[in-house]
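Q: Predict the assembly, please.
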Amino acid sequence: MTRTVQPTRRGAGMTGAAWTVLAWLAGLLFFLPVAWMVLTGFKREVDAASNPPSWFFTPVLDGYRQVFDRDITPYLLNSVMASVLSTLLVLVLATPAAYALSIRPVERWRDALFFFISTKMLPLVAALLPIYLLVQDLGMLDNVWTLIVLYTAMNLPLAVWMMRSFLLEVPAALIEAAAMDGADLLVTIRRILLPIVAPGLAATALICFIFSWNEFFFAVNLTATRAGTSPIFLVGFITSEGLFLARLCAAATIVSLPVVLAGWIAQKQLVRGLSMGAVK
Amino acid sequence: MTTTIVTTGADAAPRPDPRPTRPDRRHRWARRAPLLPALVFAIVVTQLPFLFTLYLSTQSWNALRPGSQEFIGLANYATVLTDGRLRAALLNTVVLTASSVFASVLLGLGLAILLDRRFPGRGIVRTLLITPFLVMPMAAALLWKHAIYNPSYGLINGILGGSTDWVSQYPMVSVVAALVWQWTPFMMLIILAGLQSQSLETLEAARVDGAGPWQTFTRITLPYLRPYLELGALLGSIYLVQTFDAVFTITQGGPGRATTNLPYEIYLTTFRKFEYGEAAAAGVVVVIGTIVVATFALRVISSLFRMEDAR
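A: Predicted assembly structure:
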């Protein structure tokens, strides 16, 4: 480690105040591009492209109006459909699997667990060509369901690992007690497991939603106008000419908003989800 | 964590140990049943395409010349391995992944240390800091390309003055900076979780023994954080090695091939040159490379995983 990292001081006084200021500055600096994006979205195109940058201006909704005029809505709806349905599908597949890898483990559960995580490491790009040819053969190009299936496969390992870590937190004694009382499996699941792992289910759903909402690689290669998701709407901006910055920032703000809000609300679950349940 | 409270003493053995109570067949299948749908789905969607890639990699097939498909054995591999393009792309991938992972872990560590103490508005600062990670990567890439790097109206030149064309003069740095901005919060969150799980007694004991803050940090905190740093670096590498959005958007792999990484190179071979056979062979080569790296990576996850299990 280099010497740039300063030791932590938990003391109050001047040093404490300096650390606080530093933390605030770091936070604001990292947030600056986001703030700039949101601000620029409310500018007129001429103000957006001004140099030096204008910090004070009369906010207008022109950018947003133009984005909706260019029909961003179907792209947003496709994104909602692809991410919500794939998230549901992931939960339906991953929860029983996690159960069979934690509470009533199959033999060689460790191998199964590592098989799932190894599929996550396979580079998507190696799968693109066969998937593209297959999807083309089935006439499923530019179809939301193609994305739903792929996003399910993409998020499944994550969800299995996460749900397993949540299921492991259910006290064994509780399950045994239920069995002793003669409760059958369904009752045990509904009355005991579900209430305890409900927050875990929510956290898993959130992570899967974030990853499928933001996915671009499959979306750009397998969809076009009919099934395009919200990042596809943004592709047109890559080589834009003329004045378009306010419009671009408005669109970027709209498509980022669902995930930003979800992430803000569920900050605590985010860590655990991103580390696949390894960090609590 | 609740488990440790409920189960005590002798029966606190880790639950997931396989307990083959009755090695009776039906019983075993009943156990497997909940796992099967997910397992079959994962195999069909992720493993079968790879077998198809293997087959394609032995074909000479350019989609622009219909009917040209034929078996050519390993010739595609020879092309791919001798052609400098793939090697250049590999090098770019390593540079891009390593530098963004390294920088974001380092910055993430610094930010985590800043946040690992109580101060007014800590929750707000934390919220501000995680936001870059939540912005859609495609939107973030566009934001950096146009609103930040643009030579005439971008934020950097707007604040610092000058008319540097950041993307064409420093293409790799431009891509890496945008990625580091997005991934630092991720690293910070994981490292912060590590810092906060450190027992205060150990730190207190170190202080009582006369260790200064710097000594405490390098001798106790850093070794303790090691698995968290490794986990962050590992997960970050898994995602960053596949970087596509940022390259596709900010530089299109250019100027020249300066920022063409493997995903972008294979994408070009597939959808710009339509050399399906070559693209498949390159894909196989990448997968083999990934397996080598992943074997090492899985060992890291596995050790962390045992540690958490033992808690």
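The first helix of chain A runs from residue 13 to 41. Chain A touches chain B through 120 residues (CB under 8 Å).
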